[in-house]
Amino acid sequence: MSLKLRLLASVAALLVFALLLGGAVLCWQARAAVRDEIRTTFAGAQKEVDATLAGDVQHTLTMRQVIAALNGGRNVRGFLLNEQNNVVAASRIAAVGEPAPAWFASLIAPPQLTARIAIPLPGFPCVLLLQSDAGNEIGEIWQLVRDAFAAMTLFSVITLLFVWLIVDRAMGFFRRLQGGLGIISEGDYGARLTASGPPEFAALAEGFNHMAARLSSYRKSNHRLQKQILSLQEEERAEIARDLHDEVGPYLFAIQVDADAVAKSGNAQTRERAGAIREAALHIQHHVKFILRQLRPVAGLDFGLETAIDDMIAFWKRRHPDITFERRIDFGIHLDRRSEETAYRIVQESVSNAVRHGRPHVVSIALAEAEDGVRLTVEDDGEGLGATGAQSGMGLKGMAERVQALSGKFTIENRERGVRVCVQLPRADAREMEEA
Ligand SMILES: Nc1ncnc2c1ncn2[C@@H]1O[C@H](COP(=O)(O)OP(=O)(O)O)[C@@H](O)[C@H]1O
Ligand SMILES: [Mg+2]
Fold first, then answer.
1. What is the whole-number distance in angstroms between the Cα of residue 391 and the centre of ligand 1?
2. Which one of 66, 70, 266, 418 is least enclosed by Cβ atoms within 10 Å?
């Protein structure tokens, strides 16, 4: 059950309990009041009849007259009974204005009071019977109780309505807060709440806005740091490449020249050994060239991303002629230099992973214009990531960092067969606006 319904149900239950309790107290008091009233008026009527009988010394009054004197009484009736206990005459009780419903009457009715006064008339001994009748009193108190209960019910309904309105407003705020948190969790830190309404909500909204602002500033500084790390990395790679090229290259060349010289001057065995040295040096030279290409691929971007990717494909094709490389690059895609570098690195690492870990038949590279920037996909039909998914090595980590530095999205997942790396890079103008 929702919090709103719970609150309303609790308040409603409390109000119903209060109504029942109030009703019970009302009935209890009404019952006491009716009982007291009937007792008093009955005693009064009895005294009056006694006084009338005692005062009639000359016997000028008939018993019928005594009974008739009780006519129109609200709470007491008189009866004249003969020797056989038959009613000879009875007084009329005042008409009941609005009778109470039977259930209320039976709840409230006090015990009936009776008094028998024997009249020993010579020749006509009879009995004067007085009886209480609470009908009038109950009818009167019923109206009071009914009106009080109706007022209490109206009050309860109004209270419930107010509680509903207040809870609904509060829930509206929580719904907005929930929406804002959803937006934040999607990575959009621009969400803000209006800090109005009760002070508690205003404070919550301010706290939320503060958190969103902090997150957004952390992301900016995170991007800056990542950018710095990447450029430092590039510098370092360039330096290593330079060292490799300048320091190792000449010596490898020297080894080959020296091996040639040794071969020329020696006997057959020496020539063979010198040839082997030359082979080994050549092998190392090839390897160093390969490492240099890996370290400084970005230089290839001077002729455009498409050419650089084609070069890369040619490079892999030479080594793995059994693998088919497909590439689909949409016409007219424009990427700034940073995005091009990132895209190139992603393709480089993904293709290298596919070839090294997947043993695929086909590797496809696709670069397409998307709604929110550029979408780069590298797919292979190799062995896939295995049961545990991608074991995050330096390669995957590096790709994710590069994409994050450009506020893009990076995913790697298994396809039906093989692996799909998917990267979304925002357009440069959108990125700059966010980084500003
Ligand atoms: N295309 C792929 N096919 C199969 N396995 C892959 C693929 N790409 C990544 N992997 C798995 O993910 C791991 C992590 O990759 P990576 O971070 O690039 O590290 P490395 O390539 O140095 O092992 C790899 O060791 C491999 O097990
Ligand atoms: Mg790798």
1. 7
2. 266
| Separation of alpha carbons 414 and 244, rounded Å | 37
Q: How many Å lie between the centroid of ligand 2 and the Cα of residue 360? A: 15
Ligand 1: atom nearest CA of 390 is 12
Secondary structure class of 194 (helix, strand, coil): coil
Residue 33 confidence class, pLDDT cut points 50, 70, 90: very high
- Phi, psi angles (nearest 5°) of residue 44: -60, -45
Could you tell me the distance, in angstroms and rounded to a whole number, from the CA of residue 38 to the centre of ligand 2? Answer: 102
The candidate with the shortest Cα–Cα distance to 352, out of 399, 406, 387, is 399
Instruction: At 126, give phi and psi (nearest 5°).
Output: -140, 175
Q: CATH number of 304-436: 1.10.3860.10, 3.40.50.880, 3.90.550.10, 3.30.565.10? A: 3.30.565.10
For residue 396, give the ligand nearest its CA. 1
Q: Token match 């590298």: residue?
A: 378
In terms of DSSP H, where are the helices of 56-97? 63-68
Q: Give the long-range contacts of residues 94-97, CB within 8 A, separation 24 or more.
A: 94/136, 96/135, 96/136, 96/139, 97/136, 97/139, 97/140
Residue among 394, 381, 384, 314 at smallest CA distance from 349: 394
Q: Is a pLDDT exceeding 90 seen at residue 427?
A: no
Residues 197-212 pLDDT 10s? 889 999 999 999 999 9
Continuous H helices in 244-380? 249-265, 268-295, 305-319, 337-353
Which residues, at least 6 apart from 303, have a Cβ–Cβ distance to it below 8 Å? Answer: none
Tens of pLDDT, residues 38-61 = 999 999 999 998 898 888 777 777
pTM value > 0.85: no
Our mutation pick for probing the ligand 1 site, out of 325, 357, 392, counting the most ligand atoms within 8 A of Cβ, is 357
Atom of ligand 1 nearest to the CA of 354: 1
User: What per-residue confidence (pLDDT) applies to 266?
Assistant: 81
For Cα atoms 19, 25, 31, give the angle at the middle one, nearest 5 degrees: 135
**Mean pLDDT in the chain?**
88
The residue written with tokens 């008091």 in the block is 29
* Residue of 20, 208, 336, 76 whose CA lies nearest to 216: 208
Where are the domains positioned within the chain?
A: 3-162, 304-436
